[in-house]
Amino acid sequence: MNQGWTAVATWHWVANDENCGICRMAFDGCCPDCKLPGDDCPLVWGECSHCFHIHCIVKWLNSQQVHQLCPMCRQDWKFKE
Amino acid sequence: MSSPTCSKTIAYEQFLKKIDQYWQAHCRQMIMIRSIFLFLDRTYVLQNSSIMSIWDMGLDLFRAHIVGHHIVQTRTVDGLLQLIERDRNGEAVDRQLLKSLLRMLSDLQIYQDAFERKFLEATDRLYAAEGQRLMEQRDVPEYLLHVEKRLSEESERFLHYLDQSTKKPVINLVEKQLLEQHVSHILQKGLDQLLHENRIADLTRLYTLFSRVRDGLKEQCAAFATYIKNTGKVIVLNIDTDPEKDKDMVQLLLDFKAKIDNILAVCFTSNEKFINAMKESFEHFINVRQNKPAELIAKYVDSKLRAGNKEATEEELERLLDRIMVLFRFIHGKDVFEAFYKKDLAKRLLVGKSASVDAEKSMLSKLKQECGGGFTQKLEGMFKDMELSKDFMLAFKQHMQNIDAPGGIELTVNILTMGYWPPYPPMEVHLPAEMVKLQDIFQKFYLFKHSGRKLQWQPTLGHCVLKAVFSGGNKELQVSLFQTLCLLLFSEGEEFTFDEIKDHTGIEINELRRTLQSLACGKARVLQKLPKGKDVNDGDKFLFNDEFKHKLFRIKINQIQMKETQEENTSTTERVFHDRQYQVDAAIVRIMKTRKTLSHNLLISELYNQLKFPVKPGDLKKRIESLIDRDYMERDKDNPNQYLYVA
Q1: Stretch 351-390 of chain B: residues touching chain A, C-beta under 8 Å
Q2: Phi, psi (deg, nearest 5) at residue B51
Q3: How many CA atoms lie within 13 A of B170 on its CB side?
Q4: What pLDDT sits at residue B227?
Q5: Which residue from A61, B462, B579, B639 has the highest number of Cβ atoms inside 10 Å of its Cβ?
Q6: Which tops the pLDDT comparison, B314 or B328?
Q7: Distance between CA atoms of residues B221 and B519, nearest Å
Q8: Alpha-carbon distance B613 to B611, whole Å?
Q9: What is the DSSP string of A24-60?
Q10: % of residues, chain B, pLDDT over 90
């Protein structure tokens, strides 16, 4: 009879693309400013369903003067909850 | 008179005594004369500088008429030299006589001209001959003892009768003839043996004596370094490539280092040059054999940090780790160490076998101090994953109370971030329905909390506690997930063939063979195999062993590891080399980007400056070729030895 089970799982990101559209680095890797992938360099999704490293998209959004647009599809950028 | 030589020596001694008597008498009489003519001496003589005082005149007369006489002087000096030689040979001589006559020579101011030169020559001859003779006859420790004795005797001689002004040249002569001439010979003949046998007193003597002669310590230092290199090489190279000996290598190295450290501190007064030579030598020999020492050090640390290692207290362990770090410092290929250390750390963390979190953390901080934060980032990430998993499991337990879940199994999951841990090959197995269900509940819960992620289960790393009912009583079995899958089959039926088990569990065939071997052919045989035997073959049948008995209630059944470590080992090494390739590529591009054009040799030398691990020039060439193929750089059309950076 099985009583206790210690299992091990690894997690990775599920994105609709291989690479981040801004830094062109793999999503399984991290953005150029970080050294290690994982929780410290998370991904975020926009309502347009495009996905970037959070550091990359924040940098992009801060550089936009007027409208904050998704760099891929030019729609208004809104973080998907 | 028994023999002519004897009569001669006696004649010398008598002659010397006679001279001494005359001299004493002369002095007494001169003092008398001076006392009588005191007034004359103090007035007229003093006022006329051209006239000698009475005492000086006495000395002058004695010198001119007696000692100045050729035959008298040679006989006196020769006699003195003979007497001193006999003293040096350990015979008892009249030291008073020697002292008095030598005083006479100084008073007459002919000590230097008539005596000292000849005396030094005689000393030189004596010790040159003695050095030659004894170097051949005696072994080094005895010889050194003798030299030490000689030096102290000679200094003593100056207290007794010789003039202090001669001390320095004589001691120099002894040092030169007995030591300086033989420095390399002594080192060649004796140093290795002394070091090998750890003869503290003799080594101390060697050091003190050699510190007296020019270049003595320099040569000793060089010989010391050679000894360390040679001895270390024997330990590290392990010429028979006997894996058993490899196991002991780190312990041997630690012992060797401790011994050398002790010698340095006690015998060589912690001389900085020697310490540096020691460090250089260690660094040299430990890197003679690539990668293996780094790997073995990592494994050694693992064996010490693993639970069940009760031989050391916390403090001892801490000290041991410090000593290991010293060895680690010498290693060039630190990435090899990191790879193996990481692999072992992963095992310790996932199987819960780490002896103490404090020791793990302390090792980590030592590594961080030594190699910087970048080196340990991933290792720290592993610890963080373990903590995050623990927190997450608390939340999961609460969640489980609120839903209707298949009871009986308590699930704990370690969730790993891909990049931190060593890569594990994906493997699919067939879990029993209840386990699949539980796994799905967890997965759903996890993905609900962390969107945008995917979970990949790692069945190779899981382990379980099983409750088993034998006729001899209930037992708890601690087994791996693979073992669990095999054992659970037997709660449904009595007998299975190898192929049936394979189909039911879906475990990869080699893995399954090892698993069944551990259950049916290991120490704790909870399964019976038909036919019996050590190896598992395709047609074998397996039965549940109801008769199973064991004195413990909780039993751990180890997976059979042999072949696995062999595979893991090569894959870990391969991974390191793979990572190194990227580092080489990056370094080449970095250099070319700043320099734009560079000759082959300059590029190679810059690369060696930047790369922190050993590489062969041939490998570098291959990487350069590969970068040329990928259009990162190109050869100069006019000069094939010149590279151009392609933007």
Answers
A1: 352, 374, 377-378, 381, 384, 388
A2: -100, 135
A3: 23
A4: 92
A5: B462
A6: B328
A7: 58
A8: 6
A9: --BTTS--TT-SS-STTS-EEEBTT--EEEHHHHHHH
A10: 8
Evaluated on CA atoms B555, B559, B562, B567, the torsion sign reads: negative
Q: Regarding beta strands B463-470 and A2-13, do their DSSP bridges make them parallel or antiparallel, or are they unpaired?
A: antiparallel
Across the interface, do A11 and B476 touch by the CB < 8 Å criterion?
Answer: no
Residue A6 domain flag:
no
pLDDT in tens, B43-99: 888 888 888 888 888 888 888 888 888 888 888 888 888 888 888 888 888 888 888
What is the separation, in whole angstroms, between the first and last Cα of chain A? 42
Domains of chain B (ranges; CATH) run 4-182 (1.20.1310.10), 196-386 (1.20.1310.10), 387-459 (4.10.1030), 462-560 (3.30.230.130), 565-645 (1.10.10.10)
> Residue B407 is encoded by which pair of tokens?
């009871």
C-alpha B248/C-alpha B293 separation (Å) is: 11
Q: Å from A66 to nearest chain B CA? A: 29
For residues B45 and B277, what is the distance between their CA atoms, to the nearest angstrom?
69
In A2-61, the residues whose Cβ lies within 8 Å of chain B are 2-15, 28-30, 35-39, 43, 45, 51
The whole-angstrom separation of Cα B469 and Cα B453 is: 41
CB contact under 8 A, B456 and A11: yes
Mean pLDDT of all residues in B373-377: 82
Q: Is the dihedral of CA B528, B531, B535, B539 positive or negative?
A: negative
A vs B: CB pairs below 8 A: 126
pLDDT in tens, B519-536: 888 777 888 887 777 777
The domain of A41 spans 14-81
| DSSP for B563-599, written as a single string | HHHHHHHHHHHHHHHHHHHHHHHHHHHHHHHHHSEEE
Residue B2 in this model has a pLDDT that exceeds 50: no
